[in-house]
Amino acid sequence: MRIEKEGIDTATVYTIVLVAHVTCAITGFLGATGLVVAAYRQRKTGELPAKFWQYQAYVQIITVLLGLFGMTLFLMGGRPKVIFHILYGLMALLTVLVERGLGPGRQLREVLAHDYGHGKFNEAWWFFGLNLFLWAMYGRGLTTGFWGF
Predict the structure, then answer these.
(1) pTM of the model
(2) Which of 16, 107, 93 is nearest to 59 (CA)?
(3) Residue 78, Cα to own-chain centre: how many angstroms?
(4) Tell me, which fold does domain 2-144 have in CATH?
(5) 87: CB partners within 8 A, 6+ apart
(6) Which helix (H) or strand (E) holds 9?
(7) Residue extents of the structural domains in the chain
């Protein structure tokens, strides 16, 4: 099957999307690693610098793109070696939603600070944990995607 207007066959499109998917997975894994380290270093102050939020947004965008590329591959007939690969992707997207809800000025942050933090919200520990989980989901997704275990 060919895409007539562009003159590109389906196998080429599939390969391009697959390379984009793998690139996002590796980039997200490395980005989440950096965010884990950065959040851990700020654990005593409890506050994260402005640059952290910029990189956090980049990793969140990469995660959403990873999901879009993965869904495109699935719809094009690509099936992961292990069905749990899809679960890891969904968990990563869910983590991004939680991170968005806990970002600066967000309502979920205020609720947690009021109900459990006695008015104080240690964003460094929360984002250390969330990014560590995101890192684990990236790592697990990479192992199931590349090696099928």
Answers:
(1) 0.86
(2) 93
(3) 21
(4) Four Helix Bundle (Hemerythrin (Met), subunit A) (1.20.120)
(5) none
(6) strand 8-9
(7) 2-144
